[in-house]
Amino acid sequence: AISSTEKEQILTEKVRDKFGKIIGDIDKDGDMMISWAEVSSMAEHKDAAETLASVNINMVDMIEIAEDFIFTGVNNQQKSLTFQQFMAMALDCRNTQTALIRDV
Predict the structure, then answer these.
(1) Quick one: average pLDDT of 11-21?
(2) In a 3-state reduction of DSSP, which class is residue 30?
(3) 3-state SS of 34-51?
């Protein structure tokens, strides 16, 4: 029998693989970094919502949270995320995650 932890790892790897392809599609400048324009364009990608939903991530919520990650600092400066940073942020958006006091 497969434990719930192993199932989670398998599912996460599948999503990383699928999302790697989606990021490749939306990475307009080919820099392998994810900008705000690229995150917001996910709403138009044919596979993005389905892939995110497969791991209980609501795309609209994830895009709103990504905005907070990308626009930082006093002057609301824009930064780009690496694929690893983006995936960590996205997986933290799952509806199955429990909010911690540090998240508030």
Answers:
(1) 85
(2) coil
(3) ECHHHHHHHHHCCCHHHH
Closest CA to 95 of 60, 63, 57, 62: 57
Token look-up 């199955």 returns 96
How far apart, in Å, are the Cα atoms of 28 and each of 7, 35, 46, 55, 99?
33, 10, 16, 25, 33
| Rounded Cα gap, residues 35 and 102, in angstroms | 25
Q: Are 52 and 87 in contact (CB under 8 A)?
A: no
Compute the residue count for the chain: 104
Retrieve residue 68's tokens: 């907070």
End-to-end CA distance of the chain: 37
pLDDT band at 41 (very low <50, low <70, confident <90, very high): very high
User: 72 pairs with which residues across the strands?
Assistant: 77
